[in-house]
Amino acid sequence: MKLGVFAVLFSDLSLEDMLDHIKEKGIHTVEIGAGGYIGDAHCKPEELLADDEKCRAFKQAFDDRDISISALSCHGNPLHPNPEIAKDHHEKFVNAVKLAAKLGVDTVVNFSGCPGESDYSKHPVWITCPWPNDFSEVVEWQWREKVIPYWKEQAMLLEYYGVKAAIEPHPGFCVYNTETALRLRKECGEQIGVNFDPSHYFWQGMNPVQAIKALGQENALFHFHAKDTQIESRNCELNGVLDTKSYKDINSRSWVFRTVGYGHGEGEWRDIISALQVIGYEGAISIEHEDGLMSIDEGFTKAVDFLQGMIIHEGAKDLWWA
Q1: Environment class of 207 (CB within 10 Å of its CB; exposed 0-12, middle 13-18, buried 19+)
Q2: Helix (H, G, I), strand (E, B) or coil at 29
Q3: Nearest to 253 by CA among 280, 234, 272
Q4: Nearest to 4 by CA among 40, 39, 31, 38
Q5: Which ranges of the chain would DSSP assign to H, the alpha helix?
Q6: In terms of DSSP bridges, do strands 29-33 and 2-6 run parallel, antiparallel, or are they unpaired?
Q7: Which residues, in sequence order, are CB contacts of 60 under 8 Å at separation 6+?
Q8: Quick one: pLDDT at residue 220?
């Protein structure tokens, strides 16, 4: 495994300055934003696909610094009931897949998407319980009519280009946990797997270690985000984990995203890294920063310091057992 970073943290820097900055921290692999909700500050696939010289220069910037690309990411909602948004996010995904193939990158990260409750919806509708029965009917309609047909078609695109889609389970989208991730893979094919973010599992009350092992049994874990969640016990005990308050309202929320180590301790993160080893994961540990209590550089630096020794230590165990 290699320690990496999700480069959208540094969208205010040029590509070259961003790469120099992370290299100074000892990082040698990077996940690049390529459109959708996360933007395309460092990578505009449509331009790079249309201009071979620009594409060569883009790749050379990484090669010159001995930095690899772990994935292109275009987190979006290609199933959005607004056809303009759906079309835009779908095209971003297609272009990311094509560019990944051109660059020799094997993974594109995305969300599964979430449609409305019918063909007449204006906004996505995410169902959280089975009753009244309308809710169960909506969920099955979404999967049958929207989710499965879309991703079956994308699986053919992925296979053609030799690229994998790492779907990030996230509440608000149809794939949000282990069960839904494996359902999508079973229905649509082995080109589709998971971008695993423990923070999303922590705040839903799941056990990341067990989820990693379950996904590993299906060879379904393609990429990994390093991000933590702090559970605010009193707020959670009063209101549960379904929380629609602003992320800025930190004091009132049931949970908040944190830099690794600030939501769960070293022991739990060692268990997570060990679980990745158990399933044979050899990809990136891609640091993502969404900590409202730290600046980007503070959160990034603390995550690097926390994880670097851990990954080296866990890697040494492999050599001992070998």
Answers
A1: middle
A2: strand
A3: 234
A4: 31
A5: 15-24, 45-50, 52-63, 83-103, 133-141, 148-161, 178-188, 198-203, 208-217, 233-239, 266-278, 296-321
A6: parallel
A7: none
A8: 98
The bridge status of strand 107-110 relative to strand 68-73 is parallel
260: tokens are: 């690794």
Collapse the DSSP code of 235 into the 3-class scheme (helix H, G, I; strand E, B; otherwise coil) and give the result: helix
The whole-angstrom separation of Cα 108 and Cα 101 is: 10
Residue 216 CB burial class (10 angstroms; 0-12, 13-18, ≥19): middle
Q: Residue 283 corresponds to which tokens in the numbers above?
A: 């990809």
E strand or H helix that includes residue 196 = strand 192-196
A 10 A CB-CB count for 319 gives 7
Q: Largest alpha-carbon pair distance within the chain?
A: 59
What the block records as the tokens of 185 is 């893979």
* Residue keyed to tokens 């695109």: 157
What tens digit of pLDDT does each residue of 79-98 get? 999 999 999 999 999 999 99
The pLDDT tens digits for 265-319 are: 999 999 999 999 999 999 999 999 999 999 999 999 999 999 997 885 554 444 3
Task: Measure the CA–CA gap between 224 and 195, rounded to whole angstroms.
Answer: 5
In whole angstroms, what is the distance from residue 106 CA to residue 187 CA?
Answer: 21
